[in-house]
Amino acid sequence: MRALRRTMTLVMAFVALVGVTTLNPSSAVATSWPFCGIWWGSQPKSVGSARADFLMEGRVGRHACYDRLVFELYGPAAGVDARYVRRVPVARGVRQPQGGARLLVRIPTSLPPASAFDGEVQANVPMGRWSMYDVRGFRTFRDVTWGGVYEDGVRIGLGVRARLPFRVFVLDGPGQRSRVVIDVAHRW
What we know:
Helices cover 16% and strands 36% of the residues. The chain is α+β, with helices and mostly antiparallel strands. Strands 1-4-5-7-6 form a 5-stranded antiparallel sheet, with no helix packed on it. Strands 2-3-9-8 form a 4-stranded antiparallel sheet, with no helix packed on it. The protein starts with a helix and ends with a strand.
């Protein structure tokens, strides 16, 4: 009888230990946290509605959890629309951005007028037929291409490794300028 009680006690202790381990809320939460706390998702995003005077310059950057594309605009905070598309609508003779997925970024703005290129303002937006920026070595970005200027604004094609979470936001300043920021996460 003692052997049976001892066996039953050991079995119940084992079951209780296994139950506590598998039902422990802290262990369940630890496995459900997103990468770097990113909850952005991959659905289309739009910010603002104002139209900036013109696009001045752009740049790319690498961060620990995402790659970043920034466009600086002359004028108030501009609106921006970004979405994953099968094909980026580009001007004739311009190739599609390279990558496993493509983001179309539309900024309601115009090109700078010729009078804007003085000693202070130097346009730094390469508008060639191929890549706008060198993104070799980036974890997410594969290519950034100039899509052209249309009635709805400037279009840029962003080729990324895969359809990944992204966010879009607008920053005011410095001065009369504003910045459009597109971040694409390294992974889900």
